[in-house]
Specification:
The chain is built from 5 helices and no strands. The chain is mainly α. The longest helix has about 35 residues, at about 60-95. It is found in: Cell membrane.
């Protein structure tokens, strides 16, 4: 209540839910419209969009570029929002007068920031690496890193 009103919190939560829902609908519609000609077995833990595109028998270039552009805008917006939130949090924490209070606040924030950084870096590597670096074993390791470890 000190940093933001309930109304602002509700608006932000609604924006996250709405954008997540629209993003999911877009991916689901795109995935179900892809004709598969190489079977439907993936060497992954779940149906990852880049892995499904490898099974497609149609030219999936335009689909992939479209999804990548929309995803990039959404991810960039979320990333900026999170960075600005952390700047605000660290600004408030640095104003705490006691050393013990600052230490307690940082010990709460820094593990979350480390997990977020690990998730973002492995996610960026998984989706933006060149196809020449792609192998089933590496894709599986990267999937474990950004799904299980955080």
């Amino acid at each position: 209540g000190t940093l933001m009103s309930n109304r602002a919190c509700i608006k932000m939560a609604a924006a996250v839910w709405a954008s997540g829902f629209l993003y999911s609908v877009m991916h689901t519609a795109n995935t179900f419209s892809i004709p598969l000609c190489q079977g439907n077995t993936l060497d992954q833990f779940f149906c990852e969009v880049p892995q499904i595109l490898k099974l497609s028998c149609s030219d999936a270039y335009l689909r992939e570029v479209g999804l990548l552009v929309v995803s990039a805008f959404l991810v960039f917006g979320c990333f900026i929002f999170i960075v600005l939130s952390y700047v605000q949090i660290f600004t408030v924490v640095l104003r705490i007068p006691s050393e013990q209070g600052r230490h307690k606040a940082f010990s709460t924030c820094l593990p979350h920031l480390a997990v977020f950084s690990l998730f973002i870096s492995t996610d960026v590597f998984a989706y933006l690496k060149p196809p020449s670096l792609s192998s089933p074993a590496m894709d599986l390791v990267v999937a474990v890193l950004y799904l299980v470890v955080p």
